[in-house]
Amino acid sequence: MKTTMLTSLKHRLFKTPLRRTALWKWSKISRNDRRKAKFLKKIHGSHLLKSGIRILVINHFFDGEIESLNKQIAGRSDISILSLTPEPFFSRALVWFPESVHNADIPYDAAELDAVRARYRRYCEKLYDEIAAAYPFDCILTPSDSFYWLREFIVVCQGHGIPTIVADKEGTISPRSFDVEPLRIHRMFPPISDRFFVWSERQSAFWQKAGVDASRIDLVGSMRSDLFVTLKPQKPRTLLCFDFDTDAYINNMDWDTLVWRGERNWNYLRDAIHRVLLRLAREFPEISIIIKCHPQQVVTHFAVAELTKQPNVTILKGTPRGLPAMIAEAHAVIGFQTTALLEAALAKKPTLYVSWGELFDLVAPNILPWSEPGYGMNWIRSEGQLENTLRAILEGSQPEEFRLVDRSKLSRYFYQADGHVTERLLEQLTAAIGKSGTDGIRP
């Protein structure tokens, strides 16, 4: 409860004018500089971090990929990774850049930002020296180069002969986003990285549309998929529900063209799921129900308030680790428009795609096609069906359709999800370092 209250207070303060005052700026920079110094001091004496190929990983909601990397390099002396949590290192960007940049309302390269970009680049030069002194890295691995707070650091590193490689983690772009997002990326923050590692042919086309030359794109797959296809069977003891924002995948719709006059949110769907979970929580008190919010989810309150008061219901917010283990222990996985459902399908768990209603029928061609066969999911089309299906699973009478589920289309999003993606990525990363003009691996 205390953590929830502090988080709520922090969000309220973030929206007030106080956060742009000189005192706020000074306190944020001062606090993060102390955190940064403590982190760098800790790694200065680590010999394990200073051998072989050294990869600097930017951890912006990248925990699954980092977990895969750590498993792959465990016990090896020829490769290491150092993971940076962004805020302590790049907090000056949040302080110095205007709101229009934070909200992506203005192109990052706009002339009016010349002065702040130059100032921030000077800071990034010092930041590069500080990090390289503690961990002389050979490349940057990041989920994106669109982050405004990272772009000057990338330019500085490239000036020192250090390549940046994007390991794209957004491998499930909806049809609507596929149409509009590449053009927005090209206009607002054109790609600047040396290489792009992508999940599928579809993602390769996405980045080419955003302005990346095909020669800079490598088809690798999803590192996270290694964690799911190699899961060992566990005795089920939970229900796992992936919660979602009320405007998930419809916040960029052309509503005038769609001629929709109703509410532009999924409240009806989200509330129905929560009502079912409340009834099951009461009926099956021995079953733990885990509701996992999206790491960047904005709406995390529950209209079905009694749900959060049940002793066997846990609400997870932020970016908790151990998602594969959560899936391994689940009787079933429930959700809507999320990649996590595909990952549950890879793990061959009963996976319920929950969607119905007039709004869904209208926008279905523009969002992720999980209602179609072939993605390893069972399409749930009503509140009653959801409750009956989950009750049957919990009572041990799993419906026949779960044993016969079609997974033939998973390869459209997961290129060769065979448990060896991270291994192949590291091989291609090593090759990319050589292609990028560095002097090879430092001694």
Description:
The strands form 2 sheets. Strands 2-1-3-4-5-6 form a 6-stranded parallel sheet, with helices on both faces. Strands 9-8-7-10-11-12 form a 6-stranded parallel sheet, sandwiched between helices. The chain folds into 2 domains: 228 residues, Rossmann fold; 182 residues, Glycogen Phosphorylase B (Rossmann fold). The protein starts with a helix and ends in an 8-residue tail after the last helix. With 443 residues, the protein is an alpha/beta fold. It has 18 helices and 12 strands. Helix 6 packs across helix 7 and helix 12 runs parallel beside helix 16.
Q: Helix tally?
A: 18
| Fraction of helical residues | 40-55%
CATH class of the largest domain: Alpha Beta
> So what's the overall shape?
globular
Beta-strand level of the residues, as a percent range? 5-15%
The span between the termini is: 50 Å
| Strand runs, count | 12
